């Protein structure tokens, strides 16, 4: 679930909450509360199921980075499917706070929430272990994806043979990839296009 840059989350009352459902794994069927504020865009179960079918053999024990985390739906699904760890980047404080609460309710210490601007955070050199799986599902119509891909490549965020999931609006310009990167999966559903990129050289 994502937020447009200028959205202002509502107060976290019972009427202002939605929910996301975990599809499979340790917490299969579990529903988690998320902000239901103007500008939030849910990643549908249909799209999420397609993604994790693509990643079926890769998620377990992987280090994952959830850029533009929003509700954290993708990263938490990865944890449910026994990812080793997930770092969630979320700019908006209310969404980051709710994500921390949801991770606490799941009694997991494998998720780390960082309240930060994603582009600013990725602009620094990564000094920790790089990531095997990266989720990029930013606000639509702001052309964030090319900048994120460049920063991931330049600043040591990518493990060897990393997989990068990208979700964009259907009319998004074609992605210009590094020479040895390739799109290995792609699908459109409604107004959303999803693809999986294989990083074959860093």
TrEMBL record:
Recorded GO MF terms: 16S rRNA (guanine(966)-N(2))-methyltransferase activity
EC top class, as a word: transferase
Keywords of this entry: Methyltransferase, rRNA processing, S-adenosyl-L-methionine, Transferase
InterPro entries, per the entry: RNA_MeTrfase_RsmD, SAM-dependent_MTases_sf
Catalytic reactions on record: guanosine(966) in 16S rRNA + S-adenosyl-L-methionine = N(2)-methylguanosine(966) in 16S rRNA + S-adenosyl-L-homocysteine + H(+)
EC number: 2.1.1.171
Keyword Ligase: no
Pfam family, one: Cons_hypoth95
Family note: Belongs to the methyltransferase superfamily. RsmD family.
Function of the protein: Specifically methylates the guanine in position 966 of 16S rRNA in the assembled 30S particle.
Protein name: Ribosomal RNA small subunit methyltransferase D
Protein species of origin: Haemophilus paraphrohaemolyticus
Gene that produces this protein: rsmD
């Amino acid at each position: 679930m994502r937020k447009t840059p200028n959205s202002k989350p509502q107060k976290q009352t019972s009427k202002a909450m939605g929910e996301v459902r975990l599809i499979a794994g340790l917490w299969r069927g579990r529903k988690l509360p998320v902000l239901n504020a103007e500008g939030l865009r849910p990643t549908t179960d249909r799209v999420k199921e397609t993604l994790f079918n693509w990643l079926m053999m890769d998620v377990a024990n992987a280090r994952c980075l959830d850029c533009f985390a929003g509700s954290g739906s993708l990263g938490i699904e990865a944890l449910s499917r026994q990812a080793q760890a997930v770092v969630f980047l979320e700019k908006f404080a209310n969404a980051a706070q709710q994500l921390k609460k949801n991770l606490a309710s799941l009694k997991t210490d494998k998720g780390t929430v960082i309240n930060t601007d994603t582009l600013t955070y990725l602009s620094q050199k990564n000094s920790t272990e790089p990531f095997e799986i990266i989720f990029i599902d930013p606000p639509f119509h702001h052309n964030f994806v090319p900048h994120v891909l460049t920063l991931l490549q330049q600043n040591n965020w990518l493990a060897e043979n990393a997989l990068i999931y990208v979700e964009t609006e259907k009319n998004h310009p074609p992605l210009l990839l590094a020479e040895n990167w390739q799109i290995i999966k792609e699908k459109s559903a409604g107004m959303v296009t999803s693809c999986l990129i294989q990083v074959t050289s860093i």
